[in-house]
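Quiz preparation item.
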């Protein structure tokens, strides 16, 4: 070998078997806490919208949207928690990440509408 280079110096190394330790469990617990927070937010928003007076069309649409965003978030979080049970979970696909961001931002926008409504 010229210059002392090893023959496998440029070859990619296979990923070692992963000792998951407690990291996947911490991640699952974080997803559960986030799901619980999203549930509490959806319930409180629905209560705020429907509790004070007879709901109008805008309020009904907002409650339905909040429910749909909540369902989508819970479904995506459940899929992610299930993926964490494998020895080496796959990365978060860009489409799923975008959906999760949308499920986080949309209720915030609905909350802004709730706060801005009169009465």
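Solution:
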């Amino acid at each position: 070998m010229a210059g002392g280079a090893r023959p496998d110096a440029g070859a990619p190394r296979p990923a070692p078997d992963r000792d998951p330790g407690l990291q996947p469990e911490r991640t699952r617990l974080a997803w559960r806490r986030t799901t619980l927070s999203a549930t509490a937010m959806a319930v409180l928003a629905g209560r705020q919208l429907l509790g004070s007076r007879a709901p109008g069309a805008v309020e009904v649409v907002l409650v339905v949207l909040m429910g749909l965003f909540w369902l989508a978030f819970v479904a995506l979080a459940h899929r992610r928690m299930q993926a964490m049970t494998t020895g080496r979970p796959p990365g978060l696909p860009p489409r799923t990440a975008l959906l999760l961001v949308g499920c986080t931002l949309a209720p915030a926008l609905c909350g802004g509408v709730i706060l801005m409504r009169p009465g």
